[in-house]
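Model the whole thing, not chain by chain.
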Amino acid sequence: MNLFNIFDQISQVDPEFDERVNPRRQAIQNMMSFGKKVTIAAMPFVLSDLFKRAYGQTPTDVNGVLNYALTLEYLEAEYYTKGAAASNLVPTGKPAGAITTIRNHEVAHVAFLKQVLGDKAVPKPTFDFTAGGAFSNVFSNYDTFLALAQAFEDTGVRAYKGQAGLLKGNQVVLTAALQIHSVEARHASHIRQMRKARGGAAADQKPWITGANDSGIGAAVDPVYAGEDNKVQAEVDITMLQGIDGKISTAAATQSFDEPLAATAVLDIAKLFIK
Amino acid sequence: MKETTTKQQGFIEEDNRQESERLGRRNFLKIAGAGAVGIAAFGLIGCQKDDGGPDMGGNGLYFGSGDIAILNYAYALEQLEAAFYIEVMNKPYSGINDWEKMLFRDIRDHEIAHREFFKTALGKSAIGKLEFNFSGINFSNRASVLATAKTFEDLGVSAYNGAGWLIKNEAYLLLAGKIVSVEARHAALVRDLIDNGSFANSEVIDSQGLDLAYSPSKVLEAAGPFIKSKIDVRDLPTY
């Protein structure tokens, strides 16, 4: 098995392979896989209009990616700012310290992206973190607050990954995007630990993602984790590789690679929280 | 098959020749002087350097050039991490609890998955098995193990972040992205095991909310004390 061999062959058959980002085709593929996986119970995070998914606005250039990132950072910054300010929500001590740390990073990301974009920066949307009432206790119930925080962080990690291709070779912008991307992953890791510490549905939560939707939140966040159960990377089935006690387990195979999420899918998640 | 391989390597090398020439040996040697800074920045724990670190000159394991060199660079770092965590699980530190054991077993398996993935994906272009020097680590001591794990994970994050823009092929870039966030999840967890709440503190995240990103030469200097094998990275893109 040789990666270069495979890529060489694929790009001969499919000239577009090298320009991986083909949002429309990607969206159509997602649409098909969504059809199989998504049930009515999953509705809060599911797009209302599948047709829009295929023809929705997705970033096509560097500024597009930056504004897409800025929109997500606006969302996260406002979410943690409100959460940190809500009375009797986040317990004092370590939890409040962690939420403050994360808030400060998201606020810094907004400032950074606005500075890079200058007058090209999109304005901040008006957010509704209850998603039209689906999460009505988001700023009064600590577990709801953490659950949504996890969904936002795990989505954020996937969102940045999905756009890396458009920034290929760009030392300044790609590097900055990667530097934000790994901060989001650190946040996700910590929020997951905070939720584990709360016990209940998240008692078995790990800092990394196991399979598709290990969140304990339920089907509402299936779209956040759709495809995270992938165990094949560049045609290499990770579960066929030798581990310590036999082959690499399916769980470890899915944990060891985080998957990207197409811009349309990310925006459909974000739109639920935009008025 | 042989013919195909030759052809592909030719293709990839041609693709990157200019880059390799531009960021060639001279540039690398110029930057290598920053090594001491790199090591200090990572706060590496005391390590008995009995061989003076990696010899980056000739006759070592040749990483290749262009994207292949970067993938071999990632493969080398994953070998380092996998070897470390295998040792951690072979000799668990005193007082390790079940939760920590499970976490380190998971991390070990992730790093092995990464290592084996690169080995398989690189095929004949893969460097050989590296040997490591862990003599400075006290594997029976929790603090020593966690400090080393923190160093390796933060280093891994900085390595992928810093090398991303050097990658020419979009598919490889995406693969690096899929791995780096898992390393960041590890880094945050290990940091929290040392001091809950330090998952993304100011040691690693700057005032703009940006994580570490270091050039390949700086990362290799920091990893140097742990690498016993001779490596030849003369054509590895860096800056």
